């Protein structure tokens, strides 16, 4: 894994963790979570996290 791939994976995982907390606190709904997940995958292109 290259440094850039590692950074993308790390940034995706941190961002999706925040989105999961927001979902659990009902600040967003599951539809919003799915949109956020798709946007983050597109932005960070995680190798493992997007599976």
UniProtKB/TrEMBL annotation:
Ranges of residues in domain SHOCT-like: 1-51
Listed name of the protein: SHOCT-like domain-containing protein
Organism field: Clostridium scatologenes
């Amino acid at each position: 894994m290259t440094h850039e791939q590692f950074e993308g994976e790390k940034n995706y995982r941190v961002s999706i963790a925040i989105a999961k907390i927001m979902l659990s606190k009902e600040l967003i709904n599951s539809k919003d979570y799915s949109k956020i997940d798709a946007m983050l995958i597109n932005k960070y292109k995680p190798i493992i996290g997007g599976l």
